[in-house]
Specification:
CATH architecture: 3-Layer(aba) Sandwich
Largest sheet: 7 strands, mixed
Low-confidence stretches: 1-6, 9-16, 185-189
CATH superfamily: Gcn5-related N-acetyltransferase (GNAT)
CATH topology: Aminopeptidase
Number of helices: 5
CATH class: Alpha Beta
Number of domains: 1
Order of helices and strands: EEEHHEEEHEHH
Mean pLDDT: 83
Helix content: 25-40%
Strand content: 35-45%
Number of strands: 7
Structural class: alpha+beta
Radius of gyration: 17 Å
Length: about 190
């Protein structure tokens, strides 16, 4: 049985310095938190992003590092959070904002969601997604979107069980808009 207690901490009317959920598996209580990443923590966040990119065989380069700094310092673009498990770093999540007519307005895109290996398969993912959903609603998002690699069956199952649906009649497509396409497509040597 899971018992949930949730709280959001506000400072100067700016939502989400930390959002915490406490839940119990039987008699064992776990505290899960989303904590906003500050500008002076971008290097620590970058280490987690590198771990995620290795896990999913994505390309990590200076362009990614620059984008992390931009997201962390410009909250009009979205949010970057550390995931804390019992007040210890346990992963990170990133939400960016878009606009979609079909969604009826502001769209939250979960661009990154990564739990360290020791925090997987314990029900944390579903609880953290609930925190992200709650924060997205509070930030005015009408829908959430995410991308998952086809080979990541565990993540696909989590997202599906949480209510995300695969749009089978659509494909994700990307066009890089930069002078040097290799900045985005090549890993650093």
């Amino acid at each position: 049985m899971i018992t949930v207690k949730s709280q959001a901490i506000f400072k100067n009317r700016s939502r989400l310095l930390t959002t915490t959920i406490e839940y119990y598996f039987g008699t064992v209580m776990k505290k899960l938190s989303l904590r906003l990443v500050s500008a002076n923590e971008t290097h620590e966040l970058a280490r987690y992003v590198q771990d995620y990119y290795r896990y999913d065989n994505l390309i990590y380069n200076v362009t990614v590092e620059e984008a992390i700094l931009i997201l962390v310092t410009d909250r009009s673009l979205g949010r970057a959070w550390f995931i804390e498990v019992d007040d210890k770093m346990g992963g990170y999540a990133m939400l960016t904002f878009g606009f979609d007519i079909e969604a009826g307005g502001k769209l939250g895109v979960i661009t990154d969601f990564f739990l360290a290996e020791e925090n997987r398969d314990q029900g944390f993912g579903k609880q953290i997604l609930k925190l992200i959903e709650d924060e997205s609603r509070a930030l005015g998002c009408r829908a959430l979107e995410l991308f998952v690699t086809n080979k990541n069956a565990r993540a696909k199952k989590l997202y599906s069980n949480f209510g995300f649906e695969s749009l089978d009649d659509r494909s994700s497509m990307l066009k890089v808009l930069t002078d040097n396409v290799n900045d985005c497509l090549k890993a650093e040597e």
